[in-house]
Structure formats: C-alpha cells, structure tokens
Amino acid sequence: MYIQSRYKVNNELTLLTRYETFARDKNDKDGTKMEQESNGSIPAYFGYHHDTTVGLSYDFSSNFRMRFEYHWFQGAGRLTPVVLPDPEVNDNKNWQLWAMQLMYWF
C-alpha cells in the first residue's frame, strides 16, 4: 500500500512525497514470527518494508527532464534475494537511498 502526493509548483517544477508500506505476511506484519520460525537466522526486519520518499522533477524544456528522489527505508522485505535473505550483507533494518534520473524524449 502506498500514498503519494505530487504538487506542481509551476510548469517546470514538481514536488513529490510518498509513503509506502509492505508486509511479506499479513499475519506477521513486524516479522517476529518469521524470525522465530528461522531460529533467529533471518532477522524480523526481512518481514516488512516501509519507504518514505521526497523528490522533485524539473523540466528544462518540453523534452528534457531531471528527477531526484531521496528514500528513507525501514526493513528489508523487498530486497533481493527475497527467497533467501542475506543478513550478513543486509545487516541493518534502517537505510537510505537517493536516485537521479535524466530523461530525454523525442
């Protein structure tokens, strides 16, 4: 589930906010059951994923756009590999990501 809002400041600038939440099991939304069933080898944070995003896009012309996003994540329920989570590589339930996209169309 997610909720998203976009605000067009003017013809060139658009602001974005989004909150997304995901649970691998609707009966175990915080992942504690998954952690217990794996005898602690899979941390509970692999059972859910929450993403808070802010971003903006700027149109330099009618066919040239730059987009920026910043994400704050809690949980690793959507990281790959989801079949066999790797807690050694993904050893933190809180993490951040930024993205930049340059678009040109004709």
UniProtKB/TrEMBL annotation:
Q: Which domain of life is it from?
A: Bacteria
What keywords are annotated for this sequence in UniProt?
Signal
Q: Which organism is it from?
A: Colwellia maritima
What the entry lists under InterPro entries is as follows: Bact_OM_Channel_sf
Q: Which Gene3D superfamilies match?
A: monomeric porin ompg
Q: In its UniProt entry, what is this protein called?
A: Uncharacterized protein
Tagged with keyword Signal: yes
